[in-house]
Design goal:
Four copies of one chain form a homotetramer. By secondary structure, chain A is α/β, with parallel strands linked by helices. Chain A has two domains: about 60 residues, 2-Layer Sandwich (Alpha-Beta Plaits); about 250 residues, TIM Barrel. Helices cover about 35% and strands about 20% of the residues of chain A. Chain A contains ten helices and 14 strands. In chain A, helix 3 links the parallel strand 7 and strand 8. In chain A, helix 3 packs parallel to helix 4, helix 3 packs parallel to helix 10 and helix 9 runs parallel beside helix 10. Chains A and B meet through helix 2, helix 5 and helix 6 of A and helix 2, helix 5 and helix 6 of B. Chains A, B, C, D: It holds the Pfam family DAHP_synth_1.
Chain lengths: ~350, ~350, ~350, ~350
């Protein structure tokens, strides 16, 4: 950690700050300049809250040099994490996860039909929303517990592990047989929920918040991991920008950046990012080429009659085409990176 | 609601869409153009999900004409709402709320000292965090239930109603004697929490999310109101932009926009918005001049030793100066708008 | 164009607006609702300025249905444009342009060495900056006319057509032998410059501005095209967002969106977008998979001693690896889209 | 300047970097940590290009401690600059500038009428566009030289100094009798233009670009000042964010931040920032309360028939009301800051 102070600061004020830091078991080193002095802080700076340093009024700026996340940090865990969903289905370090299914579970017939279609087309997991976060209280809120039951039926029928979103820690008991619990973008910083999920032993698919930085995503992963659960899958799903041609702006650079900073697997959601079915294929292909460990794609048997997010859902036959495209790009990507 | 379709669309496809709309009890009217036709939809369009309309593949664009919020909408409730916190302390329609206190409650001595100081300087409510949402799991997370108890002590000592943040619906019983429950920016779209708060009868101070639009803020207010609780106070606290000179960008235009769209009172938080104590005064003054119904300001007895957010906290004597400035600007604003 | 007015507006005020529109040779159609009426405007609405419509105080909202760009619009020119740089080097509709070279031209030796290296690795055009837009007046501003001369030497030595940036219309005569004139992000809305470039017959590579929408990029292309020059190549180079892990956020969704809205070729600049050499390869691969018609990549013989933008420059041997990767992804992309 | 390197870097590589820095006449100091070492660079670091430092591959991060702007920097010029427009009309350090007038000059009658109205209401300068930057080539582009002539007529008629926008350095001779030359948001980084304006002796009103940071605005001011012209007035006019309720998001925090970093006067443009006439009054009042040294406001005799930006223009009687409000808030602000 680097602290910048005015070079004309009274020595006793500098001493106050230095003592405060050293009482936390860290060392300091001062470099003097014409206008500013620099205090270098050495040691485990995750013990220091940047904000507290800033509140010393002699401080002009503070910069953290080491990232404040540890368990998610590649520096301390150089090898890629492989998240094991089932003994057959893994994700990370060369294991590619293709997650597909409807935005919302609507009926037994629908979810089983979609599950069979996406399985036939190459999906390795089934997604489907039972608890749905909707901007408007007047929109369809999901089938809830009933939806989870139908998902489990679809799992039984197809063998596909299931991925579904949780919206409150109170619902955890209902998720006992779910294979991967998804934390949606709006709950990425619902820290109470993250801590509870950290007590489970189940893979957690953690979506990046609409306006969260890559480092904040890793800090949220750290909440889960520091509570004991290391099975975290990160998900880039588009960030909010001024551009309105797509629903959000898919930040594919996040894929190599996350791989550099962290050992956790990274999947991409081109459906929510673009909000438009016809952009899903090119962005899915691009995500694979950027190095993603998996994709999560919305597929619906009858998009115009979907109860949510129909505009971004592929029909099963479109998904089959995307799946084929993904395989081609994956093969080329592996060769290009060999 | 306006739906744009290509003018070369086959009539039977247009009929499908029109029938789907009319089955929901709405009327349609088509205007034909050279390249595009326009379907005007008349009636209670909050029953229609924009996304479902977009999933008809003949649809090029959809634009909602009426806002999808109703209870928060000034169109249907033209008069300003006055939220009554206690019989003496009200907010909205000329009642100004000055909420002040530390980011976190740290000790009985601290909270009572700050409460007395801010009361003496003109504050009408006391804020203080007991449950603290922190980006890092390694930072101080608040005194929790103990913090709430200390806040109630400070209320007893000073008579100031208290405002404090909730992070999970499970904690609601602990908030029984709290006067105003705050929903933080990170939970603005924690819909499960909003629905539970909608069942209470207590004022809710709802902060705008970091990257949420003004309309989404109103939709979240709608969640609370449509569950039965009409005592909602809206709070602008800065949005995330590319500018890094301040922690967030305080969007003061939101004040007149919210007053135009909604009848709910609007307060501004210049402390979290800027993140820098020396910018709090000018932005507090600007907020009042823009028409805000109140302010929420961080005050700490000893900012450099605050357990959170010290960098943005005012000392009690600085707060007294800000309070005096606010009074002057309020008087001028009232005269300017007379 | 759709105009929303309050349903309680006095008829004579509505008539004023309708007459104003119809005097411009357009037709109108009114749909009545409970709270709002909708005026549909039919005809060539590019003649109407949205802002003027909004200034009628009865108007609540205006939405353009047809895009205001025409010559760049795929609706009126359904076939892909192929920009012919030289008889051998084309871009668009299956012709891929691989543009590489240093950020700045520094010396004859340097530019010829880089030109030979990138040509050997598969580049089809040479880029190099002679006039450099720099945020600080104290940074290196380019070799200017001398730099253009050196670029022409490199063209003579290698046969590669050259692409270089212009910063002022006054410099146009110096660009006579340049093959493609680049308009940088900061000048995307330097309309005086665009109009002058529209009088030339030379391909223009138009970069998207840091905070410009896709539609504004197309309106800037329209400035060039409506002045007579149809040889426009669009370039996505990252937009400004709150994320700081990369210099800008590369918006690859812009590639399919631009291809849908326009017939012009689209290239991607992963070097400026990320600002980090080690992210160039994955983002170049992703750009190709998203459907880009070309790439523009910075290559320098000795990045640490580059006079500008060394941090994002590849060494020649790294570029050769990227070029090989791009070929593999291109082949897979063509097959995936077949 | 602080440079972070990995603590395991080979000493000879560190030496390369250190020698490179010291050859530029600067000193270095190394602080060693567990994972990272910190090189402190002391001296005039504006001679070093951050980008070049980053291109040494051992460098993990670089942070500038001193700002790279000098002439605009309050550190080196602690006293407020007062820009003298005419002997009677000054701006900065307590001199408030109220600039008003139409977006575009349309006719002699119009500009003289507006000039007289705004003068009567308290304006100290007249604004009016002759050269208009428009997103669409099909929109009205201004009366150009003829417009400048009409502005000078209005100046003669009223005595108000005039402020008008320049779009190209080639037009400078036409601006001889203009009192303040405005550089619009889109040209904030048109560096060729800035350098030419730096050779004049006339006040320059420099608007912040749509997506430019406060520091970039100051670097652009530095371009003008380092070319010899110190009469720069900074202007905040809204930045581009995801919020669409207003045209841009007015960043009023920029006012205190700019006053802290620089000695130059700061004015605010609430008309372009909001794009909506009815939000101009509250935002003008807020700007004054935040400490602005002036305002620039659009006023038109007949907004619905304005040739540009009618939606944000006030009628003369509305401007008179805003002017009265501003006076009240100014008085209160001065008292509050006393």
């Amino acid at each position: 950690m680097i602290i910048i102070i005015n070079s004309k600061t009274k020595p006793e004020k500098v001493n106050d700050l230095v003592n405060w830091i050293e009482r936390k078991g860290l060392k300091t080193h001062i470099t003097e300049g014409d206008y500013q002095n620099i205090i270098g802080v050495i040691g485990d700076t995750s013990r220091i809250d940047e904000d507290q340093v800033k509140s010393f009024d002699i401080v002009e700026a503070v910069k953290r040099v080491s990232e404040p996340f540890k368990q998610a940090n590649r520096k301390f865990h150089p090898h890629d994490t492989v998240v094991e969903v089932t003994p057959e289905v893994k994700i990370g370090h060369g294991n590619f996860g293709l997650i597909a299914g409807p935005c919302s579970v609507e009926s037994e017939e629908q979810i089983i039909f979609v599950a069979q279609s996406v399985k036939a087309a190459g999906a390795t997991m089934l997604r489907g929303g039972a608890f749905k976060p909707r901007t408007s209280p007047y929109d369809f809120q999901g089938l809830k517990a009933e939806g989870l039951k139908l998902l489990l039926e679809a799992k039984k029928a197809t063998g596909l592990p299931i991925v579904t979103e949780i919206m409150s820690a109170e619902h955890i008991p209902l998720f006992e047989n779910v294979d991967v619990i998804q934390v949606g973008a709006r709950n990425m910083q619902n820290f109470e929920l993250l801590k509870e999920l950290g007590k489970l032993n189940k893979p957690i698919l953690l979506k990046r918040g609409l306006a969260n930085t890559i480092k904040e995503l890793l800090m949220s992963a750290e909440y889960i991991m520091s509570s004991g659960n290391e099975n975290v899958i990160l998900c880039e799903r588009g960030i909010r920008t001024y551009e309105t041609a797509t629903r959000n702006t898919l930040d594919l650079s996040a894929v190599p950046v996350l791989h550099e900073l962290s050992h956790l697997p990274v999947v991409v959601d081109p459906s929510h990012a673009t909000g438009v079915a016809r952009y899903v294929k090119p962005m899915a292909m691009a995500a694979v080429a950027s190095g993603a460990d998996g994709l999560i794609i919305e597929v619906h048997n009858d998009p115009p009659h979907a109860l949510s997010d129909g505009a971004q859902s592929l029909r099963p036959e479109q998904f089959a085409d995307v799946s084929r495209a993904i395989s081609l790009i994956r093969k080329a990507t592996i060769e290009a990176n060999a």
